[in-house]
Amino acid sequence: MTRKIADCRKYPSVSNCTLTISGEEDEVVRAAAEHAVSVHEHTDSPELREQIRGSLEDERVAV
Questions:
Q1: How far is CA 15 from the centre of its chain?
Q2: Cα distance from N-terminal residue to C-terminal residue, the chain
């Protein structure tokens, strides 16, 4: 299974957040949603989670 990445650096924020979350897709969506709510003051909703899911990238493996 391909690991996914959510990277806050790709989205402007007041706090200039640099957090990157990687793991299996459902884990990353859950953790990124919790982060968005607790740090960036978003409201957790199915729409937020779908937005996060759509922004995930495949993790690149160094060889």
A1: 16
A2: 17
> Other C-beta atoms within 10 Å of 17: how many?
16
Q: Using the structure block, give the residue that is written with the tokens 């957090």.
A: 19
What gap in Å lies between CA 47 and CA 50, rounded to an integer?
5
CB-facing half-sphere around the CA of 1: CA atoms within 13 A: 8
| Residue type for position 1 | M
Taking only the tens place, the pLDDT of each residue in 11-44 is 888 888 999 999 999 999 999 999 999 999 999 9
Stretch (H or E) spanning 31:
helix 25-38
With beta carbons less than 8 A apart as the criterion, state whether 3 and 27 touch: no
